[in-house]
Amino acid sequence: MKHIIGSNRTPAKADESAASGPVAQWRTVEEDGADQRLDNYLMRHLKGVPKTHIYRIIRSGEVRVNKGRANADTRLQLGDVVRLPPVRVSERATEKAQTMAEHAARFVPAKDFPVLFEDDYFLAVNKPAGVAVHGGSGVSFGVIEQLRMARPQAKFLELVHRIDRETSGILLIAKKRSALKNLQDQFRDRSTGKTYLAVVLGLWPENKKVLDKPLHKFLTDSAEGLGERRVKVVAKDDPNGMPSLSLVKVLARSPESERFPYSLLEVTIKTGRTHQIRVHLSSEGLPIAGDDKYGDFERNKNLAKADHTAVLKRMFLHAWRIQFKHPATQQDQEIRAELAPDLQVFLRAIHMPLEF
Fold it and tell me: Does the chain have fewer CB atoms within 10 Å around its N or its C terminus?
């Protein structure tokens, strides 16, 4: 049996009109959806629909905003009218989503996300590696869903920005709509400072400080026709290239006599492209240690072995420091997240400093 999402008819009427097929639904954006990306809005309202299908109906033009086509990153405004096409979700998928929700309700996640800062406007948590920031694409519930489960009394909790599932470190969550808009405006205006710590395979040139190659996001081919998300550098004049800027500072380098040298880098990003740091560093021939998408797969395999001198079982990329204006007081704010124990152990093993 199939459930139809996006129909504005009652189940009885939907059955009666099966010959003509299900119809679309039009939703007016209310306050809780204002300034939200279109893809995130759809994920909230089309429960149980695969993330890949949501992006497909956006690209095909089946989703409309104020009767016009829109992109996944379109920001919705209060009062916008969004067309939700009829999509089918199997009963099994619905039951699975319900089971996940029940499991999440029993899960107490707050202890998994150390709070670095919190006031009435936002909180900052130290996200562990391997945890998605939100549910979707095979992930039942991410950081934001777990926080909502842990804080049922909270009226508003929304992600200010995202970091990769494989990346650890600082993640900001807004507690008020006004704070969300203010902080996201700062991110868009590039007035924030987001600095990461990364260990790369090889000796990074001291004079290589600015990486500004444009980036292009694409999907790999697969048997189903829609593969994984990937990013690559493209030429300056490529029409698909998105301007991207990463600033690199060398904190430490292995002696040149080392057979397998490393460099510890401080990378500040001025744009927030998908996989930006990973692709920029890899494009210079020095990928991040443990990166399973753009890295040296043989080296990564050896690093993950328990009998290896320096063991690293995940990517060494950590959102270490963030600087911005407080959304209410406009005072300068700086938050730092210390490295997880496994990354500290790895730094000691490769004779890198732990103080920065």
Answer: N
Place of tokens 């391997």: 130
pLDDT in tens, 154-213: 989 999 999 999 999 999 999 998 999 999 999 989 889 999 999 999 999 989 999 999
What distance in Å separates the CA atoms of residue 141 and residue 150, rounded to the nearest whole number? 12
What are the sequence ranges of the domains in the chain? Answer: 2-90, 107-349
CATH architecture for segment(s) 107-349? 2-Layer Sandwich (3.30)
CATH superfamily of 2-90: RNA-binding S4 domain (3.10.290.10)
**Residue 242: partners with Cβ closer than 8 Å, 6 or more residues away:** 214, 215, 216, 217, 271, 273
| Dihedral sign (CA 210, 216, 222, 228) | positive
Sheet holding 25-28, edge to edge: 25-28, 81-84, 64-65
CA angle 264, 167, 243 (to 5 degrees): 80
Question: Is 32 in the active site?
Answer: no
Please pick, among 39, 80, 164, 296, the residue that the annotation labels catalytic.
164
